[in-house]
Amino acid sequence: MTQSRREFLRTSSWAGLGLLAAGCAPKVSDFAQKSGRRVVVIGGGWGGTSAAKYVRLADPSIEVILLEPNKEFVSCPFSNLVLSGVRTIESLTFNYDRLRAHGVKVLHETATMIEPDARRVRVGGDALAYDRLIVSPGVEFQWDQVDGLAAAQDRVLHAWKAGPQTVELARQLQAMPDGGVFVLTIPPAAYRCPPGPYERICQVAWYLKGNKPKSKLVVLDANPNVVSKAALFRAAWQNYPNIEYRGSNKVVKVDPGVREVTTELGDKVKYDVLNLIPPQRAGTIAVTADLVGADKRWCEVDHQTYESVKHKNIHVIGDSTIGLPVPKSGNIANAMGKICAVAVTSLLNGKPVPTMAPGNTCYSWVSDKEAIAVVNSYKIEGGKVVQIEQKLTPGQSEAWAQNAIGWANSIWADMLG
Amino acid sequence: MRVVTSLLLLVALAVAVPALAGPLDTQGAAQALVCSACHGFAGQSRSNTMPILAGIAPWYFKKAISDYAAGKRPSPEMEPYAKQVLQSGVDDVAAYFAAQARTPSPVVLDAAAVARGRAASGPCTTCHGVSGKGDPSKGVPDLTGQPPGYLRNQMLLFKSDRRSPGDDQLKAIKTLMRTIPDEQLSDLAAYWSSVR
Fold it and tell me: Would you place residue A98 in the very low, low, confident or very high pLDDT band (cuts 50, 70, 90)?
């Protein structure tokens, strides 16, 4: 499985340049003065990396600064395979060197405040002026929505942002005694990656079936039914009698002391290993910068430029957005990043913005070898994104799993290569 | 004085006039952005499964899009996207990809498989030519430099009649594919991927 990552790295012609660039370690204060036109991008995930790279591709005369606290990018898609031991976290981890080779100035810092009127981003005591700002902060968890969760953040794992928590949850799963109960809880929609929890069910159940045959997986889903690819997942679960799925079972309380969660209905469920995926909202900077709507959760944007409906010259992309008929997926964030990059470049150059619609390809692994998929295509109608078609694979197969690997290698390169 | 004024005017104009056309400024480039997630920037796929679209002949690109959209070439992935491309302007997108220089697939090939594939490639050349570049007048596409995984998948789809079932133009290749053992398909794929 690591071969595809090696293949991805081998195809790099800029790795050397990137290493050189990384050695410079620029600071925010190096960019206090803005000489030409500048785009600042907040967030180096699926949307932000795509936006930063494609602004540089569209017009290399525009300076692009990307603010991302993490030194490495870890892919959420495919990270459920780390839980089952089918892939390693290293095979999903990439650095930002080749983005630097495109001329993107990557600063491993956190944006602390946005000043829309002054067109400035605050980074601690420093500030970065911008002509256009692209905000791609992903999701933040609503810890306060589950009683007892805020105080137990370090012990109750979400593993919903791929990284150390993914590795720790895999370790806990492996260490669980045979006969133990793994509880997975799913928040109410909307949340990041609609099919993600159901793919995770497949991976955990597949692992337990082969390694801990007396164990079971209890799923407490706040939603009445499987949110995405329902028939395909239900068919896949026929192979896993160790799954106990309970719809309309919203978890409202967790007590790690007695290893127990409580549902809205008052049912108490004991666990040996818990994976609690909390309810979500837009990333914190979107909330503090007043980019979220009346729901205080998500950001409304123009469907063609992704400019915020609340603040001019600020664009929001990825999981933080709402109002488009698209899922909160990495593929959509990548598409929004590219479209937004071309829109921003056109606006800065005084040109009309081309009409561009996103697309979504979404694979889910239902075992160690087989995958299913859903694909959505879109058009722009009356200034709004409208779905043309949604198509599902007719079943699960190894061929779609191979396509999934091809998709992953391609889109990682589209963002970071 | 007049010269100075004119010069100043020129400078002012140079500043005000937008930059020259960038690489993504054409209608086709903008509409092809959605393709790059799988097919790579400018259609330069780096993966083993997704075909390279850079340098693809417009007639072949348009036939593929039309067949996918109509469900004649079944693909749950490509059918929705093909419909999107038909709506956003298939001629523009075809022209964009055709204008991109093709770099052969970076997927590393097994030299022994390439050699075996070369030795077995005779039947392919009847239609695709010794060069493998195909023949537009007969509707035969270019095989060279494509990822081996993609080429092998297509041969398997021909063999099992899952690519464009009922297409009379493809009867000959499907008959041929049924005579070739699966192991040899990998060799043929490696060989045609290696041809420049």
Answer: very high
Asked if pLDDT for residue A7 goes beyond 70, the answer is no
Tell me the mean pLDDT in the region A345-351.
96
How far is A220 from A183, CA to CA, in rounded Å? 7
State the Cα torsion B105-B106-B107-B110 to the nearest 10°: 100
Neighbouring CB atoms inside 10 A of A306's CB total 27
- Which pLDDT score is estimated for B19? 46
- Amino acid A23: pLDDT: 53
Q: Quick one: average pLDDT of A325-349? A: 98
Please tell me which residue of chain A has the smallest CA distance to B78.
Answer: A375
- Alpha carbons within 13 angstroms on the beta-carbon side of residue A179 total 1
Q: Quick check: B30 and A335 CB within 8 A?
A: no
Q: Model ipTM?
A: 0.92
Q: Does B26 touch chain A (CB under 8 A)?
A: no
User: Own/partner pairs for A8-12, CB < 8 Å, 24+ apart?
Assistant: A8/A94, A8/A409, A8/A412, A8/A413, A8/A417, A8/B46, A10/B106, A10/B108, A11/A413, A11/A417, A11/B46, A11/B106, A12/A98, A12/A417
CB contact under 8 A, A388 and B34: no
B17 SS3 class = coil
Does the distance separating the beta carbons of A59 and B22 come in below 8 Å? yes
Query: Is residue A24's pLDDT more than 70?
Result: no
Residue from B47, B50, B151 whose CB has the most chain A CBs within 10 Å, to mutate? B47
Residue A172: half-sphere exposure toward Cβ, Cα within 13 Å? 19
Dig out the tokens for A365 from the structure.
């692994």
Q: Does the distance separating the beta carbons of B80 and A359 come in below 8 Å? A: yes
**Which residues contact residue B72 at a Cβ distance below 8 angstroms, ignoring those fewer than 6 apart?**
B164, B166, B167
Cα angle, residue A186 at apex, residues A182 and A192 outer, rounded to 5°: 125
pLDDT along chain B (196 residues), means of 10: 47 44 86 97 95 96 97 97 97 97 96 98 96 93 97 96 92 95 96 98
Q: Which residue, chain included where needed, has tokens 């910068």?
A: A289
CA distance B80 to B71: 10
Whole-number average pLDDT of chain A: 94
- Single-letter amino acid, residue B67: D
A373 part of contact set with chain B, CB < 8 Å = yes
